[in-house]
């Protein structure tokens, strides 16, 4: 009788464990509309095709699920070229995954073991989201929208610890793409930020700018690879206020170690330059656009970058821009979760040198917004899009040029002077926000001679479901083992 009850309990737990694991590993199709967790198809010709003819005969909602969950069934011969163009000489679509504000926590001497376990599991929960979406969609680019960590007020040692977790647990990649992080983590020596400071201060402004202009880069490890690598996408890590601080408290130490481990804070990548299909990614450090700043040099460097884009890069640019930055642009109260707000240090007795300097901001100011939009999206260019982070909740706005002023609204204003610019404030990938993945598809329309952009979210669930799948799996293994040993 006892063994009979045990068997019922055992197989009930196993069944629930299987159900939870199916949910966790196939969540894009179980929890989301079928059109949300895939690249946008701008025409019937872009529909996913299979190597097996009978799958292509199935209803698209069924065949898509099969092909995205089992990519080895896909027929990718059209895209299988070492070129930005497919075998029919059509430029390949832009496939970018955007992850908002992971904000991973750290462990300290007094951190309780339950919190350490929570941090450990959270790393793998976030990593599960990335791995699932990467294997499902094979992006050409991946952007993490800043706030990689939960606090900028950590020593270099803890910064190294979190960066190691970031590349080993969250966003895993082949060894060559993370070797620099692993070497620095192994040495675990404080970075000589003063040496980096001296190099930056003495750097010729045009040398600095030219070192931040790239052409047809799809791989930071192999610059000769001039085509999208869907197995190893180009990774873009943005600065966030929890990584380097707002300008009123960002130091040379903050900036130096970010550059060391995550790359430059401002740069442009041009693609297909001089052709009808040209486009570019601009990575902009919005934390160092406004002040008063603790290190005014940072503001000078960022505005110099922006102005040089205007002077040198915009002259012959007639393509589309994908702007990636952390802080959203100015918009009136009520359009997004956060309204416009700037705070400044006042009566700071512990650090009086910060008084009067910028402490926090929800948006860029109206003035900065106008300047940036005019320069990054010049009048001779074409359709573009902005992806930002920062507020966690997400927002979708359109910037319409009315006269000589950019105004944000919930929809396109038909009276706009020219094409509107869509801004997506990317929802956070944290569990409290249902583990979101932003999916940006860019497609070149030959008739319009312009890039078109579409954006969707693929949602997971709060991290407790991921934890439950792991716990139930462990319990199931224990119960199955006990049943085998004791013949129950």
UniProtKB/TrEMBL annotation:
UniProt entry tagged with the keyword Membrane: yes
GO cellular component: endoplasmic reticulum; membrane
Protein name: Calcineurin-like phosphoesterase domain-containing protein
Keywords tagged on the record: Membrane, Transmembrane, Transmembrane helix
PANTHER family tied to this protein: METALLO PHOSPHOESTERASE RELATED (PTHR13315), PROTEIN TED1 (PTHR13315:SF1)
UniProt record, GO biological process: GPI anchor biosynthetic process
Domain of life: Eukaryota
Organism (species): Debaryomyces fabryi
TM ranges: 465-486
Keyword match Transmembrane: yes
């Amino acid at each position: 009788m006892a063994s009979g009850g045990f068997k019922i309990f055992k197989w009930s737990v196993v069944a629930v464990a299987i159900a939870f694991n199916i949910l966790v590993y196939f969540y894009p199709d179980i929890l989301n509309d079928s059109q949300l967790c895939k690249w946008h198809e701008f025409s019937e010709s872009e529909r996913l095709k299979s190597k097996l003819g009978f799958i292509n005969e199935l209803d698209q909602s069924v065949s898509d699920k099969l092909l995205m969950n089992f990519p080895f069934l896909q027929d990718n011969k059209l895209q299988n070229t070492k070129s930005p163009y497919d075998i029919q000489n059509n430029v390949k679509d832009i496939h970018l995954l955007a992850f908002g504000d992971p904000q991973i926590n750290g462990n300290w001497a007094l951190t309780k073991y339950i919190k350490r376990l929570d941090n450990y599991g959270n790393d793998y929960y976030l990593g599960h989201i990335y791995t699932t979406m990467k294997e499902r969609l094979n992006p050409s680019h991946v952007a993490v929208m800043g706030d990689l960590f939960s606090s900028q007020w950590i020593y270099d040692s803890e910064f190294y610890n979190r960066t190691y977790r970031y590349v080993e647990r969250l966003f895993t990649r082949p060894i060559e793409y993370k070797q620099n992080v692993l070497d620095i983590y192994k040495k675990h020596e404080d970075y000589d930020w003063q040496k980096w400071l001296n190099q930056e201060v003495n750097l010729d402004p045009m040398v600095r700018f030219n070192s931040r202009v790239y052409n047809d880069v799809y791989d930071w490890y192999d610059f000769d690879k001039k085509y999208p690598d869907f197995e190893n996408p180009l990774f873009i890590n943005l600065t966030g206020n929890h990584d380097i601080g707002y300008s009123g408290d960002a130091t040379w130490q903050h900036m130096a170690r970010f550059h060391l481990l995550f790359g430059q804070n401002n740069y442009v990548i041009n693609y297909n330059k001089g052709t009808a299909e040209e486009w570019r990614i601009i990575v902009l450090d919005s934390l160092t656009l406004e002040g008063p700043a603790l290190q005014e040099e940072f503001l000078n460097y960022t505005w110099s970058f922006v102005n040089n884009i205007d002077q040198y890069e915009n002259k012959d640019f007639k393509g589309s821009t994908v702007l990636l930055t952390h802080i959203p642009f100015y918009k009136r109260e009520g359009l997004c979760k956060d309204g416009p707000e700037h705070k400044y240090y006042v009566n700071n007795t512990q650090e009086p040198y910060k008084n009067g300097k910028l402490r926090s901001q929800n948006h860029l100011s109206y003035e900065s917004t106008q300047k940036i939009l005019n320069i990054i999206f010049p009048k001779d260019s074409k359709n573009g899009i902005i992806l930002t982070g920062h507020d966690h909740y997400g927002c979708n706005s359109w910037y319409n040029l009315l006269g000589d002023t950019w105004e944000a609204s919930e929809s396109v204003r038909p009276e706009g002077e020219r094409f509107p610019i869509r801004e997506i404030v990317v929802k956070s990938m944290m569990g409290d926000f249902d583990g979101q993945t932003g999916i940006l598809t860019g497609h070149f329309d030959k008739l319009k001679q312009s890039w078109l952009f579409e954006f969707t979210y693929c949602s997971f669930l709060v991290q407790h479901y991921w934890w439950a799948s792991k716990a139930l799996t462990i319990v199931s293994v224990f119960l199955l083992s006990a049943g085998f040993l004791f013949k129950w």
